[in-house]
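Good day; I would like, with your permission, to put a structural problem before you. A protein sequence and the structure tokens that stand for its backbone fold form the material at issue. I would ask you to consider whether the tokens describe a fold that such a sequence might reasonably adopt. I set the record out below, with my sincere thanks for your time.
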Amino acid sequence: MKIHALQTGTVLIRPNQRHGKGPGFARLVNTLADQRWTEPLPIYAWAIEHPEGIIVIDTGESAKAASPGYFPAWHPFLKNAIFQVEPEQEVGFQLEAIGIRPHEVRWVILTHFHTDHAGGLGHFPKSEIVVVRRAFALASGFAGQARGFLPNHWPAWFAPKLIDLAPHPFGAFPQSFPLTKAGDVVVIGTSGHTNSHISVILQDADVSYFFAGDTSYSQQLMLDQTIDGVALNGQEAKQTLERIREFAHATPCIYLPTHDPESGHRLAMKKVVSMETKHAS
């Protein structure tokens, strides 16, 4: 199998979003009040050339995100990101560059519906798009917009395959959904950053690839068990980080969060999580 990191531009966010400050609702308040910006962070999507069909995990952002009026002016959270995406950086063109046509993609899996993960949906009208039923419900309609999603930008044809995670433990995770017949690509529940957030694990011969979405903004923050600034359910987010660290401790694991500048390098070098990594303060 071949695995590709597809960088669909960059995003600047508030440092307090990347590294949450304060307990409970105060984390969100501190994020919204932060006037600083991070350095440009990558927006990764992932492609797996699997024997059962090509799998894309997340779709990155649209170049339209820089257009006036793309984000509702009334929403405070949606002002807390600056996207830098050129048209040729969108996921469809990135796939073409490695010899994959978007219509050849069998499955697209969304870890969650934030715009920098669902913005490239329009490239996949022929693919089966897999999402968790509860996540789809929470992101839909005006209520979804109020929660920080952009269902108004979903393609008119968008009718995803809705799945429910079953109570079948997978490593440290109590619920899972096997995508492939071989059982080597598994969807697991990793709620925290959003309600019903999921991650995807690919089991290869000697290592597991952990496509983490936004469970943390970097590997180090996962190791430090640092909750981000927009996780409304801190207990759930903490539990997810504990389970990821437990899984990585028990299984050789390459951890691939969407916005970690080191994710592409770790994939290329097959660099597994080390519990001996020096923790940041």
Q: What stands out?
A: The chain has one domain: 2-269. The chain is about 25% helix and 25% strand. The domain at 2-269 is CATH 3.60.15.10 (Metallo-beta-lactamase; Chain A).
